[in-house]
Amino acid sequence: MKRKHNRSKAPLIALIPTWAAVVVVYLGTMVWSVSLSFTNSRLFPSWNFVGFEQYSKLFQTPKWLVSFQNLIIFGVLYVLGCLFVGFLLAAALDRKVRFESAFRTIFLYPYAMSFVVTGLIWQWMMNPTLGIQESVRALGWQSFTFDWIINRDLAIYAVVIAALWQGAGLVMILVLAGMRGIDGEQWRAARIDGIPVWRTYVSIILPQLTPAFAAAGMLLSMGVIKTYDIVVALTNGGPGSATEVPAKFIMDNLFQRQNLGLATAAATILLLTVLIIVAPFRYAQYIRARRQAGTL
User: Fold this and answer.
1) pLDDT per residue as tens digits for the range 15-37
2) Residues paired with residue 96 on neighbouring β-strands, in sequence order
């Protein structure tokens, strides 16, 4: 009995280094960063507490407000766009098209690339003097204009297009896996009833893909919060601050302006944003699991 008891404790003992790393590396640095946001730290940490002064200064900084507004615009369009395009791609592949494996690889390949590479590719493609605009004009359409990357009003949408090109493949794979798990009898019944294919997808298939869309939306939303690489590679936050995002604002204040207090205050706001997004999703998963287990 004693040997069996010790054997049951073995996995817990083996996990002690992992839990120690989580507490020290993740939770410890998180608490340290939040604490610094209440100080007047500049280049080096200072424990001269100033209360909520950094947060007040943060929300009085126009660049931060613009960056948060850009994050909302980018996040909404990016997540919804990826879900929509990914669903269309999955529905197209679900029709058992020829060379399906090749198409799956082609559509998913951009997701395997880093955001830096994606940003550089689209920076070249959207460059008015080198990319799409110049290529189309060389064909004779001299009035064609595609200068979003240098247009203050449209630059954020250029970032959305580049990110959408990369992220739609992830949604496609998750949704396609969900479609392949649906009983084929439903398709046969729909054909017998004469229901159009598009209506079958919208009314029958789509409601059953809620878990796949929820997982994809969660992954995409987490990526939105930490958006940095693609903006730096594509526009570097410009023109002006038209594509500034919170992560870039934090890095600029941390390494260029040496304002550690303001940077950690902005990072704390981002942390709260992540918690606001994650908490309802995790709670919904918990409630769903309890209902499936019959304990609610």
Assistant:
1) 788 888 877 777 888 888 889 89
2) none
What are the backbone dihedrals phi and psi of residue 233, each rounded to the nearest 5 degrees, phi first?
-70, -35
Q: Quickly tell me which residue has 């395009």 as its tokens.
A: 85
Contact 177, 212 (CB under 8 A): yes
Tell me the C-alpha distance between 56 and 236, whole Å: 26
pLDDT tens-place string over residues 199-241: 888 888 888 888 889 889 888 988 888 889 999 999 988 888 8
**Reported pTM:** 0.85
Is residue 194 pLDDT above 70, yes or no? yes
Q: Give the domain 12-293 fold.
A: MetI-like fold (1.10.3720)
> Which pLDDT does position 256 carry in this prediction?
85
The ranges assigned to domains in the chain are 12-293
